Amino acid sequence: MTVLDNRALNRATLARQLLLDRADLPVPDAVAHLGGLQAQEPQEPFVGLWSRLRAFDPAVLSDLVSGRSLVRTHLMRRTVHLVTADDVVAWRSRHDAMLRQRVLGTYRRELEGVDLDELAAAGRALMADGEPRSAAELVEVLAERWPAPGRRPLGEMVVAALVPMAQVPPRGLWRTRAGVRNVLLSSWLGREIDPPAADGSDPAGRALVRRYLGAFGPAATADLRAWSGLAGLPAAVAGLREELVAFRDERGRELLDLPDAPRPDPGTPAPVRFLPAFDNALLGYQDRGRIVDDEHKGLSVAGERVVLLDGRVAATWNVEAGTVAVTPLRAFSRPERAAVAEEARALAAFLSDGESRGVRVGTSAP
Question: Which residues neighbour 364 within 8 Å (Cβ) at sequence distance 6 or greater?
Answer without folding.
Answer: 328, 331
